[in-house]
Amino acid sequence: MSNNEEQGQETKSKTEDVVKSIKVDVEHDAGSKPEGKKGTSNTDYERGFKWWLRYIIIPLLSGGGIVTAIIVAFVTRPTPVAAQQVQLSVEQGKTEQVSIATRTLLITQQDLSRLDQNIYHIDENLEIAIPREPSENWEIDNYDSLPTIGLVDVPIIGSSFEMFRAFFDQNPPAIIGIRQRQGHEIVLLESSTIQSVPMNLNLFDNLEYVRAALIGQQKTTIEMTGIDPFGGEISDEMIQQVQSLLSKNVKSVITSKLPLKKEVYSGIYILPVYRDELEKSSLLQLTPESTLLDNTLQYLNFSGYFSPGSFQNLKVDQENRIASFNASVKLHGVEIDGRKTDAILNDIGFIVTGSQRAVFVNLIYLSADDVSIYDSLRDFLKLLRATG
Questions:
Q1: Helix intervals (H) in 257-309
Q2: What is the pTM of this model?
Q3: What are phi and psi of 42, to 5 degrees?
Q4: I need a surface site. Which of 142, 163, 192, 331 has the fewest CB within 10 A?
């Protein structure tokens, strides 16, 4: 056998190892459990190159590396301004500025107990007061999720966030809100886009992305362990074979997750984030000097409440312990209540911190709704009260 044939066989063998491991990860991502080899333990099955590929390469290639960039945004701490822009319509491009009354939002427990219950609905467990419903078109209730749409809903991006959510408490968050009783069903199709990012985005279609990711992880592994998992320079042939197989397998996973249906209700949602709960996260070892405001932003990001590339105008005021961001997204080619159209989902966030907890206030407004609904939401913001 010639040297070229031997090299070809070696490349093929390595590629087959990659393929087997990738197949396991793709099937696992789709909800099935990988079967171990007969007569071998799980430890044997995860050993060596397959372990490295499964736990190092795949998380990076699936989009996990994208998330790391968000930490840089927190460190820069932009200009301290709380107000954000709401876009009321797609066609006219009309916008309005919305802000929160930060100096009146946080009150003492004693002041909370004195509020007029004819005006306020008071949740004594959460220590949050919100204005009562102005009509039967509105409802006040407790929820375990926020009706948002963002880049985390793009399958290739959203899959990486599951890894980071594990760093925080996995119990459903305690959310109270006042929202429209009638919501909207939004269907994200394979041809739809969020902020111009296609729902069927497959990073593995880009050969140079796969090349850069493999080389980057090879260098990182060598520096951290002294072991070269590829045993030298990664050949073009191997990169092409890995890219081809990854692209095909990941495409099938993406296709299985689409179309994606979401229920969206315009409203105001309030989520308390407690200092002692955040301090349980092992991620805080990386940022021991961070403030409660910083840690709350990190929690909201890794929980998917706002995501890389879909938020704008992140503004942090450490002195006054407040932050705001605009995670609004343009939706193109989506179905809203059965009709294909474009829309803007306004997603404005305010974080105000007290001594023991932060209060995250989230305004959700779909441009398909009447402007009068936004006017009500703006008025609700002025009356919110909570303890810190």
A1: 275-278, 292-302
A2: 0.76
A3: -60, -35
A4: 142
The residue length of the chain stands at: 388
Which has the closest alpha carbon to 45: 65, 15, 21, 61? 21
| Predicted confidence (pLDDT) per residue in 319-344, tens digit | 888 888 888 899 999 999 999 999 99
Q: Which pLDDT value is given to residue 3? A: 53
Tell me how far apart the alpha carbons of residues 14 and 242 are, in angstroms, rounded to a whole number: 10
Q: Is 35's pLDDT higher than 60?
A: no
Q: Which residue has the tokens 């107990």?
A: 113
Q: What is the DSSP letter of 55?
A: I
What's the first-to-final CA gap in the chain, in angstroms?
75
CA angle 65-189-172, nearest 5°?
60
Whether the per-residue pLDDT at 11 is higher than 60: the answer is no
- Are 344 and 208 in contact by the 8 Å Cβ rule? The answer is no
Cβ-defined contacts of 206-215 (< 8 Å, 24+): 207/239, 207/240, 207/243, 210/61, 210/239, 210/242, 210/243, 210/246, 211/239, 211/243, 213/57, 213/60, 213/61, 213/65, 214/57, 214/239, 214/242
Lowest mean pLDDT among 55-59, 186-190, 197-201, 304-308: 55-59
Q: Are 264 and 147 in contact (CB under 8 A)?
A: yes
Q: How high is the mean pLDDT of the chain?
A: 78
